[in-house]
Amino acid sequence: MTASILSVMFMAVVSDNIVLSQYQGICPFLGVSKKISSAAGMGFAVIFVMAVSAVFTWLVYNYVLVPLELSYLYTMAFILVIASLVQITEMIVKRYSPTLYSALGVYLPLITTNCAILGTANSAVVFKSYAFLETFAVSVATGVGFLFAIILLACVRLKTDRADIPKCFKGFPITLVTAAIMAMAFAGFAGILA
Amino acid sequence: MDKRKCKETLLGGLIKNNPTFVLVLGTCPTIAMTTSLFQAFAMGVATTFVLIFSNLFVSLLRNLIPDKVRIPCYIVIISTFVIIVQMVMQKFMPDLYDTMKAFIALIVVNCIILARAESFASCNKPLYSMLDGVSIGLGFTGALCLIGIVRELLAGGAFAGMKIPGFPAMDSVGASAFGFIVFGCMMALFNFVLQKISEKKEKIRHSVLPLEAVTGSKEVAR
Fold first, then answer.
1. What is this model's ipTM?
2. What residues of B are in contact with residue A73 (Cβ under 8 Å)?
3. Hey, how many other C-beta atoms are within 10 angstroms of the C-beta on B13?
């Protein structure tokens, strides 16, 4: 049991990486990876929101939607839960930890439309119907995978932004090609636990 | 009804404001759902449907929605139409729905839809907002289909599900990174064509000047 959780968590970080092999959360992955510091801020904010939203979406799905036979409304319920959690988190962080707010604050509103959060909640809670602890563990691992990928990309972008490349490849296209090479490297981990 | 504005709105999403290649929004389905032409087309149509109706309803309700809670309101409107799409697909195309369900649910957080609601539908009349939805949706579907054609050809050696005999196909490991690389190269190609067109326009504008002025300036430049 614990071994299977650990292997699922490991897969979520590397071989089933949320960005590079499930193609979710690509917008922030491309948009907020110009500097390593902002990439790290975004990554930690995603881990935090993903963990908290996993807890609440699991509770809402299993104790509200399923008993009321409203499970087809999960998309709407989850996105509202996530949006309000993000808002509440922002308010709490702003009130009690101004330093943390200045580090994470700007990224928090962006997270509402990060499809990795909703995608992970959907797949863990609805499609795969994990138990509570498994959902939490998988969500944290998925967030760590996102942090891992976005920081690596930010490091590579420091180089590619200064490189002499064709004009039409500047900006997003070269970043996408970089991401493709990273995706191939991450796919190489798939054999370890299979 | 202003004909010029209609035309501008309707054509804007195809090239100038193309959501995929120019605005670079909604990248997740662009990469995840373009392994074949058919899947790309289905994703594009589903997104276009949600986009048109969410634009219409956001525009109709734009004077009623308070400014402070507008984002949650938009999300409720958008997710209503996503749930409709989910139910219709589940009933009539269960096999297709099974392979696409993760990304159909994620139309809710597709940034194209929220961006159009926020930047266009919330300050334009319902008719224009619907036209904008049609236009952006077509631009998105077109881009997805183009990427789908290239990827299906390179990774599977097929066009629209039909195998092309003798075409070398790649294995699945290469295919996993393919979404990123094909998308990146197509975006570069799109940028390249746009650059060429704008350079050509610049040249034409210069040649409108009197002939001597042009030849004279060219001599100097040389």
1. 0.80
2. 83
3. 27
